[in-house]
Design brief:
alpha/beta; Rossmann fold; four-stranded mixed β-sheet; 32% helix; binds S-adenosylmethionine; methyltransferase activity; transferase
Amino acid sequence: MALFDWHKHFDPVLSYLNETGNTRWTTALKEQLTRRFEDNPHGDMARWHNALQSLPDVADARVDLNQSAITLTSPGGLDPDAMTRLENGLRGLMPWRKGPFDFFGTYIDTEWRSDWKWDRVAPHLADLAGRTILDVGCGSGYHCWRMAGAGARQVIGIDPGLLFMFQFLAVKGYLGQAPVDLLPVRMEDLPADMECFDTTFSMGVLYHRRSPLDHLLELKGTLRRGGELVLETLVVDGPEGYSLMPEDRYGQMRNVWFLPSCPTLLRWLDRTGFRNARVVDVSETTTDEQRQTDWMRFNSLADFLDPDNPSKTIEGYPGPKRATLIAEKP
Ligand SMILES: C[S@@+](CC[C@H](N)C(=O)[O-])C[C@H]1O[C@@H](n2cnc3c(N)ncnc32)[C@H](O)[C@@H]1O
């Protein structure tokens, strides 16, 4: 199989970062991408890369970024052979967790209705038109596309998950110059204090961080003065100061560290130097929002809850509840 040519996919965003004065980041990225793709490639990379390459070319692809599914269409349509190659290629990139997507009539019903999260968050955001955005832990980039649909000038998502990157590239491959990029790196890999983004999102990441206050400080460092943080994370009920640390797994998830109450989160934002922090939404996650589908055939939320009491996780903790908070960097 052909080696994954990371230059082809990432040189344009590296050039953009250089042109916008982020040379510190491009220097670090070149080393990280070389390590990731050349020195130490992931065991499944050849399979995912082949699946990506098998997708048919569509010369007249169009996209609608403002529907619940990121929707690709082709006025000329795809012939049956191309439709078969499309379906097989996309199946080769399973499991699809974050979406939904509609590739020229092939609808990918993802594990998560990520559009529901967007519908909860979007009404509370400063107008995204013309903004430069960082989406930390962006998964397949579903929300990045929605941000572009809301008029963002440039969106950069970061996520260490390589399958997510290939799923992102499956969409991006049809959209050429779209101002949306996904870099397969972690928050900790970014240089400190870049202070260049107008809005930074961290959705579904804080509870995976062993040191949540450091995560908030890192996020603050990405923002220009007056920039907006959008933080979405698992919370529990409780007074200011309260935070749950699971003994081991939470809802079968590993790497879950702190589930604070909303008043605790507000205090954390205040203590890490954000201003005007407010909770704009609190929602329980249901088995309609996160579930097994034909495109994600592993266990999902219904299997992670107590069958006798679905308001609890299988470990006996309160069931998943998520809060969205918005705050500004002074
Ligand atoms: C629960 S998913 C959330 C995805 C998406 N933001 C959403 O809200 O639907 C958490 C994501 O964070 C990513 N992640 C975990 N640790 C990270 C880190 N240190 N830096 C950046 N992303 C991270 C994971 O790979 C995963 O895709």
